[in-house]
């Protein structure tokens, strides 16, 4: 059964990007492609969506998205700094006008006191600059991934609408 919230957001994002002539790229870690799947489920997404990267490992974050190793070492993959670097790197490397990134701890394992399960950062980057938002979800793995994908669509839609 389709997720009506993601479908609605992806439909609105498509209309906004097409209206503003913006090309979008995504870069996802803990969501594993859920944002991209929501976008490409809407007919006509090829009119604005260039593609995305699934950067699950730090090496792929570094090698494909261009996140500096020093940033990963200093802040860890789940950080605002890496979310921003992911979004900016995907935007530049894929030739997009705007990019959104997701990095987090979906669970049920992998959390720590400093970075608990559910901690997620979503980044967005365009020609005006880059920013990240912090979220702390309290669901199970599937719920955390879903909520992260919804938040990513909301954030990029907000940025395109400005």
CATH class: Alpha Beta
Counting structural domains, the number is 1
**Beginning-to-end CA distance, first to last residue:** 32 Å
Task: Name the shape in a single word.
Answer: globular
How large is the radius of gyration? 14 Å
Low-confidence stretches: none
Structural class: alpha/beta
What is the CATH T-level topology? Maf protein
Quaternary class: single chain
Task: Report on the architecture of this protein.
With 162 residues, the protein is of the alpha/beta class. It has a single domain, classed as CinA-like (Maf protein, Alpha-Beta Complex), CATH 3.90.950. It is 45% helix and 21% strand. The chain contains six helices and five strands. Strands 2-1-3-4-5 form a five-stranded mixed sheet, with helices on both faces. Strand 4 and strand 5 (129-136) form a beta hairpin. The longest helix is centred in the C-terminal third of the chain and has 21 residues, at 141-161. The mean pLDDT is 96.
Layout: helices, strands, pairs:
Elements: H1 4-20, E1 24-28, H2 34-40, E2 49-54, H3 58-63, H4 69-75, H5 80-94, E3 98-104, E4 119-126, E5 129-136, H6 141-161
Parallel strand pairs: 1-2, 1-3
Antiparallel strand pairs: 3-4, 4-5
Helix pairs in contact: 1-2, 1-6
Summarize the structure.
By secondary structure, the protein is α/β, with parallel strands linked by helices. The protein contains six helices and five strands. Helix 1 (4-20) packs across helix 2 and helix 1 (4-20) runs parallel beside helix 6.
């Amino acid at each position: 059964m389709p997720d009506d919230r993601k479908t609605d957001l992806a439909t609105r994002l498509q209309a906004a990007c097409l209206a503003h002539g913006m090309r979008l790229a995504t870069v996802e870690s803990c969501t594993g492609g859920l944002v991209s799947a929501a976008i490409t489920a809407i007919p006509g997404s090829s009119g604005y969506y260039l593609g995305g990267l699934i950067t699950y490992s730090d090496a792929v974050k570094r090698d494909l998205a261009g996140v500096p190793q020093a940033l990963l070492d200093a802040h860890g993959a789940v950080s605002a700094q890496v979310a921003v670097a992911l979004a900016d790197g995907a935007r530049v490397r894929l030739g997009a006008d705007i990019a959104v990134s997701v990095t987090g701890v979906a669970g049920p394992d992998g959390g720590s006191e400093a970075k608990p399960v559910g901690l997620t950062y979503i980044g967005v980057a365009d020609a005006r600059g880059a920013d990240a938002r912090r979220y702390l979800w309290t669901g199970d793995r599937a719920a955390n991934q879903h909520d992260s994908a919804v938040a990513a669509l909301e954030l990029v839609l907000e940025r395109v609408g400005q």
